[in-house]
Design goal:
By secondary structure, this protein is of the alpha/beta class. Helices cover 44% and strands 15% of the residues. Helix 9 links the parallel strand 8 and strand 9. Bound molecules: pyridoxal-5'-phosphate. Pyridoxal-5'-phosphate binds next to helix 4, strand 7 and helix 8.
């Protein structure tokens, strides 16, 4: 469908508006020449306005629009202690006058730093719960977390809006369908063809939403997700399933398969949220060449994936590649010592 029809379709969904949109696209000229090509651009979803920003803000515009239209009073969500998603959810809830409740995985840390410090400052209700990852399918983990939340006295089915980990739901992912549309319009305005969009994949929701958006628009842009967590079993089919259910809200006949996006493994390092050597090198390269800060959990590893692909000749030197900066900088402060030890 054309841009106008997709924009009209997206406007039919309830939406709360708090993001600064469109986010900027910058050409990273120095980084591109340091690597000897391709032409690398960066989309600044890290500077999207709400509470230090990040990719969850786009998802939350649709999720909290839905919560308000259902008359909910509380917003409940999940994540690691340094969850950017949790921090953005609390900020959006506060802005809209909803009560934020968080379930964070693991033991309560001794020190409140980074995102957790910000959650505390925004006065979120915080519970710590056990969590094992690595073997579960995303869908099963989401169902378990929902059951855990509903057993808490702070949560009730009538007045609480429960958001899955990472805002990964068909409604939330409409935010990245909107981002695909925004990207297409911005590149058109610049008179540039776009070949690839690269993004860090945690739940894979952002990859799924962007893929759905570009497929709905009928473009040839290929989305590349860099797996930064190795958190889920059957990750590729679950991204394809999310992309399909996201797209079907707009075009009921659309199916998205694993061939519609590329998932790259091998950039997790020692594990989810543990800084890696390549990730820290990427953080340093962007800081040094562009004055842009990445984070050690997602975007550093995502950019390490892009750099790794460039070095092994995956892109043509003339390709235009857009990296989506999905935010996460507060974790840089929480993991400063580990980052410095890998410099
Ligand atoms: C959540 C997050 C991601 C991953 O997004 P998904 O949609 O869960 O794959 C990437 N970068 C940052 C900074 C994030 O907070």
């Amino acid at each position: 469908m054309d841009s106008k029809s997709l924009a009209d379709k997206l406007n039919e969904f309830p939406r709360a508006r708090f993001a600064y949109l469109p986010s900027n696209i910058e050409h990273m000229k120095n980084l591109s020449s340091a690597l000897g090509g391709p032409n690398i651009f960066i989309k600044r979803d890290d500077q999207i306005g709400l509470g230090i920003g990040g990719n969850k803000t786009r998802k939350l515009e649709f999720l909290l629009g839905d919560a308000i239209s259902q008359g909910k009073k509380k917003v409940v969500t999940f994540g690691g202690p340094q969850s950017n998603h949790a921090r953005q959810t609390v900020a959006a809830a506060r802005k809209l006058g909803l009560e934020p409740v968080l379930f964070l995985f693991g033991e309560e840390p001794q020190e409140y730093t980074g995102n957790l410090l910000l959650d505390r400052l925004m006065d979120a209700t915080i519970h710590f719960i056990p969590f094992e990852s690595g073997s579960k399918r995303l869908e099963d983990a989401v169902a378990d977390m929902k059951a855990e939340a509903l057993s808490s006295p702070d949560v009730s089915e009538e007045d609480s809006y429960i958001i899955p980990v990472g805002g990964e739901s068909p409604i939330g992912l409409l935010g990245y369908v909107g981002a695909a549309l925004e990207i297409q319009q911005q590149m058109e305005t610049k008179g540039l063809r776009l070949d690839y969009v690269v993004v860090a994949a945690g739940t894979g929701g952002t990859v799924a939403g962007l893929t759905a958006g570009f497929r709905l628009l009928g473009t040839n842009v290929k989305v590349i997700g860099i797996d930064v967590g190795a958190l889920w079993k059957d990750f590729e089919p679950s991204i394809a399933a999310s992309a399909t259910s996201t797209a079907q809200q707009i075009d009921p006949g659309m199916t998205i398969t694993r061939k519609d996006f590329i998932l790259v493994e091998g950039f997790v390092g020692d594990g989810y949220a543990i800084p890696s050597k390549e990730g820290v090198e990427a953080i340093r390269l962007l800081a040094r060449h562009e004055g842009i800060f990445l984070d050690p959990v997602y975007t550093g590893k995502g950019m390490a994936g892009l750099i790794g692909l460039a070095r092994k000749g995956f892109f043509k030197p003339s390709d235009n590649v857009l990296f989506v900066h999905t935010g996460g900088v507060p974790a840089l402060f929480a993991k400063g010592k580990e980052v410095l030890s890998l410099l």
